[in-house]
Amino acid sequence: MVIKDTGLNGKEALLADMDTYMHDTGFVRWAWDYLHATYDYKLVEKGVTYYLRIQAHAIEGRLEDSHALLRLEEPFIGKHLFPHGVDYDAVIPDNVLKNAKGALKTLGDKLANH
Predict the structure, then answer these.
(1) Neighbouring residues of 56: CB distance < 8 A, sequence distance ≥ 6
(2) Residue 12: strand, helix, or coil
(3) Whole-structure pTM over 0.85, yes or no?
(4) Separation CA 56–CA 9 (nearest Å)
(5) Domains observed in the chain
């Protein structure tokens, strides 16, 4: 499920700054290669795990360089499937979505003050 109207789509920051803002908000950069990264925020509700994800693409430089310029895409959220995988079409409980939007607002505030 894509979460629209967050104000994050198209936001840009240097990798070092983006990593700091993401980390301070609770996101972890798990999957990455030289040109893109995926930041994950884990939410657990009643024993079920959900992942809020934001993809970032290097528009200048590569992710091996802390001065690479990244641009964010729309965030999306899905339900974790055991043992691996994420269902992005799953129904997301209101409380989980509310918490996800709160994290996105916090991140947006950090990027706005950048």
Answers:
(1) 18, 36, 37, 38, 39, 70, 71, 72, 73
(2) strand
(3) yes
(4) 10
(5) 1-85 (3.30.310.100)
